[in-house]
Amino acid sequence: QVQLVESGGGLVQAGGSLRLSCAASGRTFSSSTVGWFRQAPGKEREFVAAISWGGGAKDYADSVKGRFTISRDNAKNMVYLQMNSLKPEDTAVYYCAADQEFRPRDQYSYDYWGQGTQVTVSS
Question: Which of 17, 29, 32, 73 is the most buried (most CB within 10 A)?
Answer without folding.
Answer: 32
